[in-house]
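hey so u asked for the seq, here:
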Amino acid sequence: MALEHQGHPDHQGHHRHHGHHGDTDIDWAVMAPMLESQAELFAPLYQSVMAWLARQTPEPGLIVDTGSGPGVVSGLFAEAFPGARVVAVDGSGPLLERARARAARLGLADRFGTITGELPGALAELDYPADLLWASNSLHHLGDQRAALAAFAERLAPGGTLALLEGGLPTRFLPRDIGIGRPGLEARIDAVEADWFTRMRAELPGAVAEAEDWPALLTAVGLKHTGTRSFLLDLPAPVDDRARTYAAAVLTRLREAVGDGLDADDRATLDRLLDPADEASVHRRNDVFVLKAHTVYTAVRPV
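ran it, structure tokens below
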């Protein structure tokens, strides 16, 4: 689960939120509390997604959360679908330990399971095909996305639904003109990040260039595209401390990952935004907000 659930330095990840969960240079036990806090911040958005999915798949027996991270979204699925068993799949054992502990705290342990392993191969360990398979910002970490979608589709029960969260709009935290530096900082960060993402995709093992026409790709692997909808998280200024911490965490990751692609003035502005001692920082200023759109695509395996 990327800090923002995977990949982009700005991915809500809430599921790997960067890099695969199998990365050995990341201490997921240390990262887990921040991943959980960020996923909880986005809970209203995920709950809106689940209400939409419930109209398409009213009584799923098995829900599979691929790239689940510490299980915040898995738990939300279990609460939204009280008749379902939920299986969280992730490459990080420590994160899945937290997912199991979270399920126990919520009283969901009797219908919650985990599988440790990298996607898509780990799905072969499922005892039963999924009625609803959730893939949130995990697909773009796999080199051959079409082949991965085909593997996801194979693990669906006839009539089962694949819900794919990919794309949307970049997160915004600040007005265009923030009173320091050149206006439009976040738009320039977006451009540098887009180049970073292209390089990240190209360097993945077995990378295959693919137009990101998700309905067409879902159709190409034998599924029937049934819906596309975007969901908004809108936390207006002034935000609470959790949202402010989230903004600082995302901007810190962006500074580390793509800062070298910005000019010196923009880097200096970003450094001021991240300095807790600076009155202009996101830690102190009153105009910080959180505005993010995620897009979800659904498709059904024919009966």
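The beta strands are 62-66, 85-90, 112-116, 130-136, 156-172, 224-235, 290-300. Residues 28-231+255-265+291-300 form a domain with the Rossmann fold fold (CATH 3.40.50.150).
lmk if thats what u needed
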